[in-house]
Amino acid sequence: MIRKHKLFSRPRKAFDSQRIKDENAIVAKYGLKNKEEIWRAKEKLKIVRDAAKRVIHSSEEEKSEFITKLNNMGYNVKNPVEVLSLTEEDILRRRLQTVVLKKGLATTPNGSRQLITHKKISIGKQIVNIPSYHVNVTEENNINILKSAKKGTQKALVSAESGEMEAGE
After folding, report:
1. pLDDT at res. 135
2. Domain spanning 96-162: which superfamily?
3. Which of residues 167 and 39 earns the better pLDDT score?
4. How far apart are CA 104 and CA 93, in angstroms?
5. Can you tell me the distance from the alpha carbon of 141 to that of 82, in angstroms, rounded to the nearest whole number?
């Protein structure tokens, strides 16, 4: 069995008040389950930055291949130097949970997370129940809410707009 390596590293200072405030704001903005998801995004960003540092000194063909790959992933960069200016929020914007919210399939970040975990969201014909799924540019237009979920979601949207809750919800 292959050992799965850690996907994140914890902050060095456990009780840094400014970092905690910033992370709390990000958790609320993107509807994350916990701060570990932010740390995973930072680790993913570190991997991309390290790859960009290696590619900077390589041939033009490798640079263009790297930039094309990143643009397909949804990061609008023109050269490897711009990759170094990416933030963890750029990674979090490409999560399925955030894309579902931006498309208007859910009204809140937590609502989009709930739709995804309850298997109400599909990409093409494939049901995806992982809120942290990274959405490519080609997949973004294929995100749909399942027909069985549309009825309940429309009721929730109507009741949220009118400001009242229906009986039984």
Report:
1. 95
2. RNA-binding S4 domain (3.10.290.10)
3. 39
4. 14
5. 26
